[in-house]
Amino acid sequence: MGIPGDIGVPATENLKLYLSQATLPLMKMPRNVPQLPPSGHRSHNIGLTTRPERYRRLQFMSQDLGIDIEVDVPNYINRVVPEHPLKEEDYDSETGNAIRIPCNPTFDIPQPHMIPPTDLDRFASWLVYLPLQTVERAMHLVHPKSRPWSFVYQNGDMDDAHFKYYAWELAPSISNPNGQETTAIFPLFNESRRIRFKDDERIWGKLYDICVSRNCPYFAITNYYGWVFGVFSKGWSTAFVGKVQKYVDVTPTILEHLLYWLSSSMDEPGTYRRPEVGNEHIIPPEECPSVVYDVMAKNPRAALALYLLD
Known about the structure:
The protein is an alpha+beta fold and 310 residues long. The protein has a domain of 206 residues: tt1808, chain A. Helix content is 27%, strand content 11%. The strands form two sheets. Strands 1, 4, 5, 6 and 7 form a five-stranded mixed sheet that branches. A two-stranded antiparallel sheet has the order 2-3. The longest helix is centred in the middle third of the chain and has 23 residues. The protein is globular and about 60 Å long. The N terminus is likely disordered.
């Protein structure tokens, strides 16, 4: 066994120290990627198909999670993550996952050779290979009962080209996902005046629909450089989100925050608890209504058959 700083020292030598120091590497963007609009200008059209729906109960976005992230997350990490050497390697031969994010000079983790993200698929590969694989391996080491859980890519709807997401799922079933997190007020559905969403509203509407359909209140949304962690209230009427966290932040690091949020979604002791808002009605997930438009996203032929029913 070596000590941090020695050549060949793995992250499992002191996982707590590793998680507190490892930050995401810079994502080098290719020259042909469209530039972000100037401050105060609208973003590029994101192309999501989200529209106002009467079943969508989200009415308010709160930027107050009710906790001090800079204190509560490190406190949890200090309490549950070991700092003694583990009898485990960084690489998990069973799952193929590994601790991937370099943390030089303290730990010896190979520098990844990532392809510049010229499209959304390559962009997603950065997220999967670096933070998601790393935190999945860390979760399995810290919480051994989470070993059957993993990040699974979700696909199959009409917005795949514009919005990708991964669910923290219990293998092999996908019926019980438990994890997976700017203020906007959503317009209420009005049959006499069907309005269109703005881009930011489409994003939150899309996220809301995904989380409700999977009974998955915890979420994290990112463009790699910025991360927002959040949770929906028990009645799904309010979303609580934290401030935008930069990819290079260290109090806490993105890896520490991801591990804390996944642990919260699995109801680990000492983690964040889903808030309840006033007298909001709590609707069981199986009672969430859907319309033909929703079915169309998954199976256009089935949607047409439903539409033609008398």
